[in-house]
Amino acid sequence: GGRLIYVGAGTSGRLGVLDASECPPTFGSYPEMVQGVMAGGLEALVRAVEGAEDREAEGVEAIEERKVGPKDTVIGLAASRRTPFVVAALGSARRLEARTAYVTCTPRSEFTLDVDVAICLEVGPEVVMGSTRMKAGTAQKLVLNMITTAAFVRMGKVYENMMVDLMATSEKLVERSRRTVMTVAGVDYETASAAIAAAGKSVKTAIVMLKLGCPRAEAEARLARAHGFVRAAIEATS
């Protein structure tokens, strides 16, 4: 029932915002569920704001503004372990009893911050010395993908290996919804399209309707009892 909040600076911060912004269309999550907090604010997403990463008070303020609490998880993102904005934000989150983690490229033997989980990616020297947007940034993005994907799989947003809670906000995603229903339910294009329309554009509901040959109301009731998990909704005895 809590939120995932990334806090970062520079390349790491931008990657947190990117990962957070991709969750609603991919997994149908509400925008507040996964958030990205960037040192220097929105301006820093498109233009470097020098000194923003050193502003400890702004890191604390970012956490307090979001009313972080025990149900939330705050993940710090930085190539090093010393970024003041990130360290201060994590300290504030711990005082507010949130779970904390740090994704960094600092060797574990040198990591001393007090967090619940430290993910230390040892990527070695950059091709261009000091440019952490290269190997460090790439490695961190892979980890963020793993974190959110695993979390949403556990929340029932995926059935088999299909995104079944995506928000069809573009023609590409509308087509993906149809292809998903076709693949999972083993039906043709027209049948999948009709089922999605009858299900109120819900891929999950359409799949349950087709798998069980049941009306929309029953499919929705099954999904509600199964807390949104398609497999459980299909396999339930009633």
From TrEMBL:
Gene3D superfamilies: 1.10.8.1080, Glucose-6-phosphate isomerase like protein, domain 1. It holds the Pfam family GKRP_SIS_N. Its EC number is 4.2.1.126. GO terms for biological process: amino sugar catabolic process; peptidoglycan turnover. It comes from the Bacteria. The keyword Cytoplasm does not apply. SUPFAM superfamilies: SIS domain. Residues 1-157 form the SIS domain. Keywords: Carbohydrate metabolism, Lyase. It is an enzyme of class 4 (lyase). The keyword Lyase applies. InterPro entries: Etherase_MurQ, Glucokinase_regulatory_CS, MURQ/GCKR, SIS_dom, SIS_dom_sf. This is N-acetylmuramic acid 6-phosphate etherase. It comes from Eiseniibacteriota bacterium. The lineage of its organism: Bacteria, Candidatus Eiseniibacteriota. The gene is murQ.
